[in-house]
Amino acid sequence: MSWNSQRSEDRIRKHLESMGEIDVAPLRKEANLEQLLSETTCRDIYGAHVYIHISNFSHLASVKDSTENYYKRLIQAVHIYERAITRIVTDLGGVLIHFQGPKLHALFYRPIEQGEQLATRAVLLQLILKDFVKTIFNPAFPDGEDFTIAGGADLGNAIGTMDGMNGDRELLFLGSPANHAAKIISSAHRLRLTPHLYDALPNDLKALCIQTDDGPYQVQSVPSTTLDTLLNTHGLTWNRARSARQIQNDKEQFPLEAIRYSAAEAPIDLDQLSIFNNKRVCAASIFADISGFTRYIDTATSREEMQMALKVFHVIRKETARIITTDFDGLRIQYQGDRIQGLFHLPQDQEKTIVKKVVEAAIGLQSAMEYPLKACLPQAKDLRLAIGIDIGTTLVSQLGARGQRDRICLGEAVERAAQFEERSAGGQIAISTTMSLLLPNELTSHFHYSATVQGYASTDLTAEKVARTARASIYQNQTPVFLHANARGLLISNTAQSNQATPISPSQRYASKS
């Protein structure tokens, strides 16, 4: 199947008609957010958002080691890491939102609207995780390369909601704190805070922070004994010995010899994946981010504006997922705030066909955003999609703690696709050199090298533009075309569809138009 404008518009209108009224209200008491939130039940939540990223993960995922045990060690390490981090976040009173590949997103919103306590927990989580990785996790995996982490945190109000289809709903947070916490992450070992979060800290934690040249504050490292004192001062605990025992127990529960991975000749059933059942495939990863959405939702101050912003968000999310999964038979891996991650792995090992399909899907995403979506929701007129894609060997799994396992794709191409998206502007599709060489000729001409993207990019590439270019190519080199008359009017094509077709040799001036 391919993207179709009318089908896309019909889906969007049907979704709008069935959505119902969106309820946005401040969260005034503790709640199970996964049970409370939905597409139409949303809450404005004051909290501290923390992101912790394995900063050398791109390198770990791209090591040129074809041995079976290397991949098994990587899967085992990521699985046990996510389980351990989940326990630490929960013990500190936080909520695990999800892992975006190698990046943790956690939220502290309890105690309700107590900014100093929330900011304190966010900073202490960063310090605990840095200590944990250095003193417990890395020594437990001596045969693998050490993980290094970097972090970012912000404090403020963000709108919490749940989105997804067919039982795969996910917690999502929209607004500056959830976005800026991720944006300020920089190089390895650095733990950073926005000025908003810094201002809410008690003096003993402020004393650990220095302001960087680009604005955020950096939390300085502390010895383990100092960390223990800080935890005790603020009424929090973290037991190193228990964490170490849990790591060893997990290594025994998930031994290397029990980890399996295989190829996939049919569409991967993501719900059947686990640390014991992984897939290793040639696949194209695609990331599509709504450029301008954080600013759009931050300027929504009235209840009506918030409701409309959420309506726009839900429609974009659902339609992008349908284009990836229904129109082009891809897999929706994860929603990540206002970004969606997809994967294309069929036909098995046929790189050219996969590349053509994923780029056509990207064109469908851009087309839906620019035409039917904005026709149905003119409030989205300033929103664009930034898309990044790459292809390569990819491990696909579900890892982490029971009940909180996240879909994950591991591989160099996954990391590069995400980086292409992050370097792209709204309206762009960015791809690697490898992808550009695999594209068919009718699509290659739309992509040009971009130093900013550090790859090949196309701007404002829609289905209409591709079709227009294809029609123009009929006229190249004065190739004869055929004129057909039927009940619907005149049709021009490059083949004679009947013996009544009239051949025409167009002049060169038409061949130059696109």
Can you describe this structure?
The chain has 514 residues and is an alpha+beta fold. Helices cover 41% and strands 26% of the residues. It is built from 19 helices and 21 strands. Strands 1, 2, 3, 4, 5, 6, 7, 8 and 9 form a 9-stranded mixed beta sheet that branches. Strands 10, 11, 12, 13, 14, 15, 16, 17 and 18 form a 9-stranded mixed beta sheet that branches. Strands 20-19-21 form a 3-stranded antiparallel beta sheet, with no helix packed on it. A hairpin with a 5-residue loop joins strand 8 (209-211) and strand 9. The model is unreliable at 508-514 (pLDDT under 50).
- SS-based class: alpha+beta
Describe the main β-sheet briefly.
9 strands, mixed
Counting DSSP H or I runs of 4 or more residues, the number of helices is 19
Shape: globular
Instruction: Report how far apart the termini are.
Output: 25 Å
List the helices and strands and how they pair.
Elements: H1 5-19, E1 23-26, H2 33-36, E2 41-54, H3 57-62, H4 68-91, E3 95-100, E4 103-108, H5 115-140, E5 149-163, E6 170-174, H6 176-183, E7 191-193, H7 195-200, H8 203-206, E8 209-211, E9 217-219, H9 224-233, H10 240-253, E10 261-262, E11 278-291, H11 293-298, H12 303-327, E12 331-336, E13 339-344, H13 351-370, H14 372-376, E14 384-399, E15 406-410, H15 412-422, E16 428-431, H16 433-438, H17 441-444, E17 448-450, E18 455-459, H18 463-473, E19 481-486, E20 489-493, E21 502-504, H19 508-511
Parallel strand pairs: 1-2, 5-7, 10-11, 14-16
Antiparallel strand pairs: 2-4, 2-5, 3-4, 5-6, 7-9, 8-9, 11-13, 11-14, 12-13, 14-15, 16-18, 17-18, 19-20, 19-21
Helix pairs in contact: 1-12, 4-5, 4-10, 5-9, 5-10, 12-13
